[in-house]
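Appendix B. Worked example

We walk through a single record from start to finish. Start with the input: the chain for DUF1772 domain-containing protein, Citricoccus muralis, length 69.
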Amino acid sequence: MAAAASLAVALGVTIVGNVPINLRTGRIREASAPEGFMAMRRRWDVLQLVRGSLQLIGFILVTISLGSN
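Next comes the structure step. The output line below is what the pipeline stores for this chain.
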């Protein structure tokens, strides 16, 4: 149950956090980077860290669960 919750939250972070930033920044070229671009990039980095950590936790929990059966 905890593994599913961790993976579900990771998916939510991806959809609500990473994807909108990806859509905004995917069209930006280095020469035309708008003000606030670096702040948006730092936010994306934090969200990526959260997402990756939750996915790792979910994987570990699934592995433990399968190993105990």
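Two observations about the output. Residues 24 and 67 are 42 Å apart (CA to CA). The chain has a mean pLDDT of 88.
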